[in-house]
DNA sequence: CTAGGGTTAG
């Protein structure tokens, strides 16, 4: 509503015999003029509370609070609110500590706000904060998280010379990751080769990034070659390296090879984790083998790897597909015990299946559990 | 959020 219309309204209402009604109507008109939804109000109070909280130095060390707030605001697309609370941080003396500044740059990255990350990076000297390869790497990482991949290669080309920053292994690994993410796995391999001419040896992170990209693109042969190169360079495979390979084998329909690889990991002193077992169980799900999936689920438990959201999200619907609602129910119980959330639709499907099979007691128990969460 | 991680691979 235009302000003229508003004035006209006010003029009308001022002749109203009841002043109380006048006030209410005027307020409503003001609301129409500048609508503030209850969601916006919530955001405003969240921002206010965050600033007040971080005004206390003690709370500036609560990384999780920062991250949770930024991620929440990002999810709601309140980017100006994120800018608001992170800009506010520049008021504190902590900003002179590069560690603190790096955290803020990374937070911009998590909110996919690469330009703001760069703005802060550019301002560091004027904020009396030292700027080294670490904040440079944080900026690169923020661009990767923002999926602004061109910016990564651009900055990597320009900044080191301009700012006399020597790129290190983390810088190179971040560029490798950016190239893999954009689908240029070959260029990423080239960068790995180039590192060596800068006297920086590829490490396990470099290999893991590239291996994962090769396996994801079903370039199994090249991945195997890379694995050999890694061994030749005496870079020790860790659990993530093996997990990439497990996923690759499973994608290549080589489930039994994958199972063997898990056993081999144990022998090599690399303890399989959730991702390892999930990768293998996915193989058995893909070929419709519930019995083997059950066997490995048990092994997973025995190895002290708590099943996670991915495990339950995969196995419960699979058990339903196989009409094994008792097992699906058992898994739901485990999920509650493990404090892992399961989609309501999945729980509903299990409950419906139980009812169809006249297992009303179980169905009721299940619904009760679901409601508790 | 409520302990605490300066940057990279889920």
TrEMBL record:
A Gene Ontology biological process term = chloroplast-nucleus signaling pathway
Q: Which GO terms describe its cellular component?
A: chloroplast
Which key words tag this protein in UniProt? Answer: Repeat
**Known Pfam families for this protein?**
PPR, PPR_2
The yes or no answer to whether the keyword Phosphoprotein is present is no
Q: Does the keyword Repeat belong to this entry?
A: yes
Residue ranges of PPR repeats: 168-202, 203-237, 238-272, 273-307
Q: Which NCBIfam families does this entry report, sorted A to Z?
A: PPR (TIGR00756)
- Family indicated by similarity: Belongs to the PPR family. P subfamily.
Put simply, this protein is called Pentacotripeptide-repeat region of PRORP domain-containing protein
Q: Which organism is it from?
A: Coffea canephora (Robusta coffee)
């Amino acid at each position: 509503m235009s302000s003229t219309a508003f004035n006209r309204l006010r003029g009308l209402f001022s002749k109203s015999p009841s002043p109380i009604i006048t006030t209410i109507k005027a307020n409503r008109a003001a609301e129409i003029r500048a609508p503030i939804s209850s969601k916006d109000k919530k955001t405003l109070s969240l921002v206010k509370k965050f600033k007040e909280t971080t005004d206390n130095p003690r709370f500036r060390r609560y990384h999780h609070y920062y991250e949770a707030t930024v991620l929440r605001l990002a999810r709601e697309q309140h980017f100006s609110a994120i800018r608001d609370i992170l800009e506010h941080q520049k008021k504190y003396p902590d900003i002179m500590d590069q560690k603190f500044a790096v955290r803020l740059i990374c937070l911009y990255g998590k909110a996919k706000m690469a330009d703001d990350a760069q703005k802060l990076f550019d301002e560091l000297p004027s904020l009396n904060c030292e700027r080294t390869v670490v904040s440079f790497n944080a900026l690169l990482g923020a661009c990767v998280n923002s999926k602004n991949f061109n910016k990564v290669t651009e900055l990597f080309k320009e900044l080191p010379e301009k700012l006399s920053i020597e790129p290190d292994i983390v810088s190179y690994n971040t560029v490798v990751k950016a190239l893999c993410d954009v689908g240029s796995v070959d260029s990423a391999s080239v960068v790995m080769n180039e590192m060596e001419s800068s006297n920086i040896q590829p490490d396990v992170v470099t290999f893991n990034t590239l291996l994962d990209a090769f396996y994801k693109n079903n370039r199994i042969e090249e991945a195997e070659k890379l694995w050999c190169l890694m061994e030749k360079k005496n870079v020790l495979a860790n659990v993530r390296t093996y997990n990439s390979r497990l996923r690759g084998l499973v994608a290549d329909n080589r489930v039994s090879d994958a199972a063997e690889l898990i056993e081999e990991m144990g022998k090599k002193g690399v303890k399989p984790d959730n991702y390892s077992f999930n990768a293998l169980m996915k193989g058995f799900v893909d070929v419709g083998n519930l019995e083997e999936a059950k066997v490995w689920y048990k092994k997973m438990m025995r190895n002290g790897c708590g099943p996670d959201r991915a495990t339950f999200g995969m196995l419960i619907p699979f058990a339903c597909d196989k009409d094994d609602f008792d097992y699906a129910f058992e898994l739901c119980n485990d999920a509650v015990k493990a404090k892992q959330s399961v989609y309501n639709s999945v729980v509903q499907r299990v409950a419906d299946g139980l009812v169809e099979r006249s297992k009303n007691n179980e169905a009721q128990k299940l619904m009760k559990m679901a409601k508790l969460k």
